[in-house]
Design brief:
Layout lengths: L1 E6 L2 H17 L4 E6 L1 H4 L4 E5 L8 H6 L1 H18 L3 E5 L2 H13 L5 E4 L12 H7 L2 E4 L4 H8 L5 E2 L3 H12 L4 H7 L8 E5 L4 H19 L4 E6 L5 H11 L8 E4 L2 H7 E6 L3 H8 L4 E5 L4 H11 L7 H6 L6 E3 L5 H11 L6 H15 L4 H16 L1
Parallel strand pairs: 1-2, 1-4, 2-3, 4-5, 5-6, 6-7, 8-9, 8-11, 9-10, 11-12, 12-13
Helix pairs in contact: 1-18, 4-5, 5-6, 8-13, 10-16
């Protein structure tokens, strides 16, 4: 069968790649065309557009690149129409994907499945109307979404488990590199423990957060730690170099960068500063204590508006899954150097919050459940398509 997939960022690319692998295991004749990235490309098929060409976030960046986004959307619709896939599989990225779903259903091209549902429980709850009208089946990866969709909105969904748990478990099983070897490979100091910096996968996120994260962590360099930045796979190294140049930092103040090695970095990190998103969950599953940092301009205004528009108590997946504050969340104007530095001290060895946070990770992991998300989703997708023939 023919599968058309759309993922709009690095984490979606990884999740979609594992789903593609699971689909191939159940459908020997599977063909793929997709909007995504390098991980999906490794599974075979045709990459029609790399997500980095359309990955814009925030009102101003989206507005500035609106023509590019609209052109990409029109192109995507045409490619689906011409190829006539057996199904379209959407992976998160709701601003783009829900419009594609509406087009596919309006033209009765094929079933539309959503893997990793839009986070309408947090904002834009009105999108339930589009989901109900245009999505044939939604596959949830967060256990609390069952009550939201089924009890609150009467919309049946399939909870398949969490793919990040699968990905981290698989990596841990196969990864054997020692701390000394990891440091040698990346020109790090094997005598100094690591504070990992996960500043996001989009350029705007990095620009907004990296400086404050580094400045908050620099005092701990004097105490024997080293700062290591997880370079996003979609961001070129020269972008980071230009960012450091723009900040006017001397070489000795700059963190080391390991490109496309987030999981190895987390395997060896003592603590981490992390922007919100999938990275918070990954960090927790590696049992690395963290501070969630997400700077937003005009922070005081944002915090006021947040009370009106954000429907949930937390922004990090760790706290949302656990339904309690396991990790500190410093958002908008709360994300400042003093706050981040103070919370970082509390989760380093000897800090009063470290053991408590690690215990919270265990409770969260138990709620997520056993691995197997892509396999469960692939099985149901293939069975649905076969039964419809």
């Amino acid at each position: 069968m023919k599968y058309f997939l759309i993922a709009g960022e690095a984490s979606g690319d990884l999740h979609a790649a594992h789903l593609m692998k699971a689909l191939k295991a159940r459908d020997a004749e599977a063909q793929f065309r997709f909007y995504g990235g390098d991980e999906m490309l490794r599974q075979g098929g045709t990459l029609l557009c790399h997500y980095k060409n359309l990955a814009y976030m925030g009102f101003i960046p989206v507005l500035l690149h609106l023509r590019t986004i609209l052109r990409g959307m029109a192109q995507c619709k045409q490619q689906i129409s011409e190829w006539r896939p057996d199904c379209v599989i959407l992976v998160d990225y709701p601003g783009f994907n829900l419009k594609i779903a509406k087009f596919v259903k309006a033209h009765a091209i094929c079933p539309v499945y959503y893997y990793i549902s839009p986070k309408i429980w947090a904002w834009k709850e009105h999108r339930i109307k589009d989901i109900r009208a245009n999505i044939d089946r939604l596959f949830s990866i967060l256990p609390f979404e069952i009550d939201f969709f089924e009890k609150k909105h009467g919309y049946p969904i399939s909870y398949v488990g969490n793919p990040t748990a699968d990905e981290v478990a698989a990596f841990k099983t196969s990864y054997t590199e020692s701390f000394a070897d990891f440091c040698a490979k990346n020109r790090l100091d094997a005598k100094r423990p690591i504070i990992a910096l996960l500043a996001g996968s989009r350029k705007q996120e990095i620009t907004d957060n990296l400086r404050k994260m580094c400045e908050a962590a620099l005092p701990y360099v004097k105490k024997g730690y080293q700062l290591v930045l997880a370079g996003a796979p979609s961001v070129a190294m020269d972008f980071y170099a230009k960012e450091f140049q723009r900040l006017g930092w001397e070489a000795q103040l700059q963190p080391a960068i390991v490109q496309s090695q987030t999981y190895p970095l987390l395997s060896h990190a003592t603590a981490a500063l992390v922007t919100s998103g999938t990275a918070t969950l990954e960090t927790a599953l590696f049992r690395v204590p963290q501070v969630v940092c997400y700077y937003i301009a005009m922070g005081k205004v944002v915090n006021v508006l947040r009370r009106w528009f954000l429907k949930v108590k937390y922004i990090s997946l760790v706290n949302l899954v656990a339904n309690e504050e396991v990790v500190p969340e410093l958002v908008a104007d709360a994300m400042n150097v003093d706050n981040v530095s103070r919370h970082l001290q509390r989760i380093l060895p000897g800090g009063d919050e470290r053991a408590k946070q690690l215990a919270g990770y265990e409770r969260m992991a138990e709620i997520l459940g056993e691995p197997g998300a892509p396999q469960h989703a692939a099985q149901e997708i293939v069975e649905r398509l076969q039964s419809a023939r």
